[in-house]
Amino acid sequence: MTLSILFQTASVCVVDKPSGMAVHRGYDNDGPFVLQTLRDQLGRHVYPVHRLDRATSGVLVMALDAETAGQLGAAFTEGQVEKQYVAIVRGRPPAEGLIDHDVPKSEDGERVRAVTAFRTLGTSGRFSLVECRPLTGRYHQIRRHMKHLSHPLVGDVNYGKGDINRLFRSEYGLSRLALHASRLTAPSVALDVAAPLPWDFAEALGKLGLLDLYPAP
User: Is the dihedral of CA 201, 205, 206, 207 positive or negative?
Assistant: First the structure.
């Protein structure tokens, strides 16, 4: 397959990662993987500087040399990168808020502080479109935090509700996690890139009457 490249320079390549594709080889060895696919596509070595869950789509940054990988890695570690996500959740969350709730740092790691800012963009019946900005980078942070608020993400097989997931597959045509990394900004390296809304995510929002509320970059 070919990955959609959103932005590229001599030292950075930003791709639009599809849902269902892992960034790199993991425990299950179930490919294809972004790292190998992009390497073959560009014909050169690439360096991952952050990650997205397999089920999440959207903006993913890769460095094209070791020096840039170090600079970008430091920017992520030092909190100099702003990440914006959109998600469809069950229920009606508050208009906005800040979730400060400890979560595991890794799949089996110790619990550490995690903070996510969110705002509700609109509601249709039992479901809402929210914008989330994680201020820390923890394992499944947004998914865990929205479940903590009793507003789990649609399509989440780990923290969501099976009946809701089945409803969205049959009635809304959405068979994936409703979480999309829509924009990433890193001022220290003059990077500001947005990813278009995937067609299946957009179709579900259209059926909910919430598509016009999506904050187009």
Answer: positive
| Residue 72 covered by a domain | yes
State how far the Cα of 135 lies from the Cα of 47, in Å rounded to an integer. Answer: 23
Query: Token pair 């990813």 is at which residue?
Result: 195
Do the Cβ atoms of 161 and 90 come closer than 8 Å? yes
Q: Which residues are catalytic?
A: 53
Coil, strand or helix at 186: strand
- Report the amino acid identity of residue 118: F
Alpha carbons 203 and 209: distance in angstroms, whole number: 10
Return the closest-CA partner of residue 86 out of 207, 194, 209. 194
Q: Domain total for the chain?
A: 1
**What is the domain range of residue 101?**
4-212
Q: What is the CATH number of the domain that holds 63?
A: 3.30.2350.10
pLDDT digits over 78-132, tens only?
A: 889 999 999 999 999 999 999 999 998 777 778 999 999 999 999 999 999 999 9
Distance (Å, whole) CA 2 – CA 4: 7
pTM of the model: 0.94
Q: What is the dihedral of CA 173, 176, 178, 180, to 10 degrees?
A: -120
Residue 189: both structure tokens together:
């390296």
Residue 155 lies in a domain: yes
- As given in the structure block, the two tokens for residue 146 are 């929205």
d(CA 171, CA 143): 22
Cα-based angle 24, 29, 34 (whole degrees, multiple of 5): 25
- Candidates 30, 26, 68; CA nearest to 47 is 68
